[in-house]
Amino acid sequence: MIRDITIGQYYPADSLIHKLDPRTKLLGTLMFIVSVFAFHTFWGYLVATVFLGSVILISKVPVKFIFKGLKAIFVLLLFTIVFNIILTPGEVLWRWGFIKVTKEGLVLAGRMAIRLIYLVIGSSIMTLTTTPNQLTDGLERQLRPLNKIHVPVHEIAMMMSIALRFIPILLEETDKIMKAQIARGADFENGNLIQKAKNMVPLLVPLFISAFRRANDLAMAMEARCYHGGDDRTQMKPLKYAGRDYAAYGILTGYLAIAILFRVVGI
Amino acid sequence: MGIIKAFKLGFDYFKYDEDGNVQEMQRAVDDINLDIEAGSFVAILGHNGSGKSTLAKQLNALLLPSEGTIWVDDMDTSKEQELWKIRQKAGMVFQNPDNQIIGTVVEEDVGFGPENMGVPTEDIWKRVGDSLRKTGMTAYRHHSPNKLSGGQKQRVAIAGVMAMRPQCIVLDEPTAMLDPNGRHEVLEAVSELNKKENVTVILITHYMEEVIHADKVYVMDSGKIVMQGTPREIFSQVERLKEYRLDVPQVTLLAHELHEAGVDIPEGILTTEELVSALCQ
């Protein structure tokens, strides 16, 4: 059962958005975020909403999944709205004791809420339509210029993908060790927080030892297969832009241009 | 001239104290001479701690000899500039199937070796397709390795080595963590490669049943090669094998006991059929 867990929140589907190059999606998300901060009027947000709505439709990801991401920021959202409403000075609409609601506060709160929500939705679409591996590949390619300032981009990407591969294996192992310790009388359920943390020690020690052993084995296996870092390495599945990626870049640029135009003109 | 040759090979493990001084020294491999012919199927037998895994790691320069020399296809493993060529010539499959698979998809893992060697992209795809076919794993190429059985994982690992087009595969107890079905599956794949692709196979194991089809068997004990010969020659010396804490296959043992008890059958019987025909004569 524990084998089947998926890392990240990839939603498999056959859509145009899924097929886009991960680099396009990474840059596209960035452009969308910029646009959300550029827009500041009703008409602007309408454009953003239409854009976001159509992307969701094309991606074939059920709306339910997309809104799941919002749960995590619910508290943050609530705080932002409440503090913006009561702390912004301006034309007072309603007053109760020292709490006063201003017109400017309402407008600002609304704007902040929309920005936050769109930000989260925009980036969830990326993570929902891209496998963690593609994301790693995309990041590696996109960050390659950092190699010049001696950032080990390839090594970081390799570590990320190995971690992704070993998460299910280590989870399974945790499960096994837990059962073995429970069979010998360990108690992971009862007690207060400190006791519970203490009870985790017999779980963590064997897990760490085995993780190190695995790392050692894996390093040896990689060396045996001629792994020697990112230099002179070719790729089996190099990232290649297709026609649809250029089209997507075209649309994104147009969209961003509208956002900047709206800002300049002041709509 | 053999593909792998060793001359007076020795290797020591050191145990260091906190200041980095040598505290203890243990000889894991001692005075080993090998000459393995290209295209043959060689088995190295030994119980735990006999030095067979240490020897295996010498064969593709994961460990370098403390003494003596080892040549892989005429290249001395202690020469650093030949290192990657040697590892490409002599591929290695390890014991734990989980700890040697790097990719999150079967085909990506098989492509890992060629990627490291700098093979052009189209060529990688060809090699991956080829070696998946040779190991019978084509149907699983888009699967996640986590969902395969142990035997299938080992076959993926073998395919990964084959994609590097080695002349020689060293398998270090590849079946130790598998169930009997998986064991059979892996051995079949290996002997297929040996026969059809003419790849030299060096199988390191402590299961006697796995070596009866080998061309040559070496038996190791405390770092030394103590017996060598064809499986039949080795298995006809049941008493001596017992001294080295190795169990002979059941059929061989039965034949040996019968021989001891005075039944007129030869020593060194390897299969059930052989025993049956010997008894019926």
TrEMBL record, chain A:
The chain crosses the membrane at residues 26-59, 65-87, 108-129, 149-171, 246-265. It comes from Blautia ammoniilytica. The keyword DNA repair does not apply. It comes from the Bacteria. It is found in: Cell membrane. It is a multi-pass membrane protein. Forms a stable energy-coupling factor (ECF) transporter complex composed of 2 membrane-embedded substrate-binding proteins (S component), 2 ATP-binding proteins (A component) and 2 transmembrane proteins (T component). Transmembrane (T) component of an energy-coupling factor (ECF) ABC-transporter complex. Unlike classic ABC transporters this ECF transporter provides the energy necessary to transport a number of different substrates. This is Energy-coupling factor transporter transmembrane protein EcfT. Belongs to the energy-coupling factor EcfT family.
TrEMBL record, chain B:
Keywords: ATP-binding, Cell membrane, Membrane, Nucleotide-binding, Translocase, Transport. PROSITE patterns: ABC_TRANSPORTER_1, ABC_TRANSPORTER_2. It holds the Pfam family ABC_tran. It is found in: Cell membrane. This is Energy-coupling factor transporter ATPase. It is a peripheral membrane protein. Its main location: membrane. Residues 14-247 form the ABC transporter domain. The keyword Mitochondrion does not apply. The keyword Phosphoprotein does not apply. Belongs to the ABC transporter superfamily. It comes from Blautia ammoniilytica. NCBIfam families: ECF_ATPase_1, PRK13648.1.
